[in-house]
Amino acid sequence: MEAEKHQFGKYDGGMLKDPSCVSTCTEQELYFYINNFGGMIWRLNHDMSHGKIEEKLDLTPYQYALEYCVMHTPRFGVKIDEPAEGEHVKATDSYWAWFRWWDEYFQRTLTEEDYKDYLQKVKKGEDVSQFRPTGDWRDNV
């Protein structure tokens, strides 16, 4: 029996409890979805290649989820081309400028205290719009 084929960028790999969440999440949340799925793929590949995980895991569901999230970045002005059937989503200069802008902010700019404040506000459902990098990511395209 042949495995069912899905379109990258259009299928979440079954990794999201509610796939519609990426259509309504904040820009910060979408960055975290992408960062987390990308990080999981990197970590699992790393651990498999170094013998920390003996069995070869199928990371396709994580890749589907990552690309599904990337295809939702145009909500925030990112230019992404629709992938051809059977093709992966191709990261554009626009996408990388957007991702790196957020990544620099959350990984290097925010203090640990600021990040804890951000997480508390998210947990309480409070406005987190103040947690944005300065400037505009489009300046880096």
In short:
This protein has 141 residues and is mainly alpha-helical. The protein has helices spanning 21-24, 27-49, 60-70, 93-109, 112-124.
Q: Can you describe what's shown?
A:
- With about 140 residues, the chain is mostly helical.
- It has one domain.
- About 50% of the residues lie in helices and about 0% in strands.
- The chain contains five helices and no strands.
- Helix 2 (about 25-50) runs antiparallel to helix 3 (about 60-70).
- It is globular and about 40 Å long.
- The termini are far apart.
Summarize the helices and strands and which ones pair or pack:
Blueprint: H1 21-24, H2 27-49, H3 60-70, H4 93-109, H5 112-124
Helix pairs in contact: 2-3
Q: What is the overall shape?
A: globular
Which strand-content bin applies to the residues? under 5%
Mean pLDDT: 94
Spatial separation of the terminal alpha carbons: 45 Å
Features:
single chain, 141 residues, mainly alpha, 5 helices, globular
